[in-house]
Amino acid sequence: MLKRIFLVLSVLFSFIFTKANIIIVNGLTHHHKTSKGQTVKGKITIENIGNTTENVKIFLQDYSYVADGSINYSKPGEKPQTNATWTKLNADLITLKAKEKKDVFYEVSVPAENIKSASYWSVVIVEPVEDIKPSDEKQGISITSIVRYAIQLVTDVDAENAKVDLKFESIKFEKENNAKLLKIALSNTGELFCKPSLIAEIYAKDGTKIGVFKSQTMSLLPNNSKTFYIDVSKLKAKNYNAVVIATDEDENAFAVNVDFEVKDE
After folding, report:
1. d(CA 29, CA 108)
2. Which helix or strand (DSSP H or E) is residue 11 part of?
């Protein structure tokens, strides 16, 4: 019985392949600074790098994430700081011929009142339309794995009256794929979207400075959190002190002291 099940599965899924002919040309984050009562405009440039015609659907969703890697997509307008209900797209379905490029235009009209000074956001989902088609060659079905894009659409409303505030949720040392890593969960408890990067100034227990280690810069939405990684593979197995500093693009800085142990096993 098990052999028959495995045989059926192998027939059904023998035609799985990935389709990634659609790309976004002008970035996955569109960030605008504006004021109450104003309208901002922009475009998302989509290109078909494949050799066949592609249909692409475009739609809005709300979006959030947490430091454990979980991402949540929900209906437009559900999140407290969504701008989805302010946003209009000029198309919800486009057709791209082979090697063709098209722009999808958007407008974000900020209400004139009853909103606070803060960042508001949603994501524009760009997804090729692909049917599940019967296979002409063998029994079963042909299943295509579709690559879809989520383009962040962020509007800072009267940012000069809002603030950035970052909180260190946890800092721990772990080994992963032979790399020694400091994993730092950082949450944005402020009102504004920001792009922090982290450094760790590391000291031996006798106070000798060992070095400065850096993370990549990542964007961070308000009321969301991400894990930043700092590679400390150069450190020998022993106990250390560190000053971990998070700095955003406007040089707002937040720091914490931590003790940790590097282990070789």
Report:
1. 15
2. helix 2-12
DSSP secondary structure letter of residue 76: T
Place of tokens 């894990």: 227
Topology given in CATH for the domain delimited by 17-160: Immunoglobulin-like (2.60.40)
Average pLDDT of span 235-254: 96
Buried b (16+ CB within 10 A) or exposed e, 111-132: eeeebebbbbbbbbbbbbeeee
Q: What is the pLDDT of residue 215?
A: 98
> Looking at the chain, which residues constitute the CATH 2.60.40.10 domain(s)?
17-160, 166-261
> What CA–CA distance (Å, rounded) separates 81 from 122?
9
Residue 225 has pLDDT above 90, yes or no: yes
The residue count of the chain comes to 265
What percentage of the chain carries pLDDT values higher than 90? Answer: 83
**C-beta of residue 26 within 8 angstroms of C-beta of residue 74:** no
Taking the domain 166-261, which CATH number applies?
A: 2.60.40.10
Q: Higher-confidence residue: 142 or 1?
A: 142
pLDDT of residue 130: 74
Please state which of the ranges 135-144, 162-171, 216-225 shows the lowest mean pLDDT.
135-144
What's the rounded Cα separation, in Å, for the pair 238 and 226? 27
Q: How far apart are the first and last CA of the chain?
A: 44
